[in-house]
Amino acid sequence: MYKLKVITSTVRPGRKGPAIAKWITGAANNHGFEAEMIDLGELNLPLMNEPVHPALKQYEHEHTKQWSAKIEEADAFIFVTAEYNHSYPAPLKNAVEYLVHEWAYKPSGMVGYSIGPFAGVRAIMNLKADMLALKNIALAEMVNIPQLNQFMDEEGNFTADERLNNNAKIMLDQLVRWTKGMKAIKEDK
Ligand SMILES: Cc1cc2nc3c(=O)[nH]c(=O)nc-3n(C[C@H](O)[C@H](O)[C@H](O)COP(=O)(O)O)c2cc1C
What we know:
Pfam families: FMN_red. One of its GO terms (molecular function) is oxidoreductase activity. This is NADPH-dependent FMN reductase. Its EC number is 1.-.-.-. InterPro entries: Flavoprotein-like_sf, FMN_Rdtase-like_dom, NAD(P)H-dep_reductase. By secondary structure, the protein is α/β, with parallel strands linked by helices. It has one domain (3-187): Flavodoxin domain (Rossmann fold). The chain is built from six helices and five strands, in the order βαβααβαβαβα. It has helices at 17-29, 40-43, 62-72, 90-97, 121-132, 162-187, and strands spanning 3-7, 34-38, 76-82, 106-113, 136-145. It has a five-stranded parallel sheet, sandwiched between helices. Flavin mononucleotide binds next to loops. Flavin mononucleotide is lined by residues 10, 12, 15-17, 82-86, 114-116, 118, 148.
């Protein structure tokens, strides 16, 4: 079974990211992945504070060693990203920057959301470009959630509609395929 990490992007109190991540984590677990959700708000990484370039993997801090181990064991990722000022939020950029090799030769599905009509598409396009620099390949298939509040209830729960569930299925089908392929590339040294 492939190991999948579902990673959120926001840390502010009242953030909606974890509710959406919970939904896609459940969908992934029902799709043959061993999926684990990582809420960056709970992970609480400081701003990147390793003295040595992460490509050398000479990690000084315990939080980095734990983050490295968590990402290393993953075969694939799903990033659940909000759109902050037409891009993806700084906490996610920070979490990504801590590591290099741990992201490489692995595929990523992306779920974008926003309270406006653009559904996090601009955040995803920026995130995709940055992940490519780390040899992490984002799928063409993605899930875009516009006008987020229509899917949220008063308790902060997120409920996907038929279109979103269908888009998630399409993306997860492709993620299985790409995970298999990228694993072969990763192991072929
Ligand atoms: C700092 C900040 C910047 C934002 N920028 C955008 C934006 O560029 N486009 C957009 O549609 N919504 C924007 N929003 C609204 C977010 O889509 C909405 O608040 C969403 O719930 C943020 O995700 P979160 O709840 O996980 O923090 C912004 C919100 C914040 C707090």
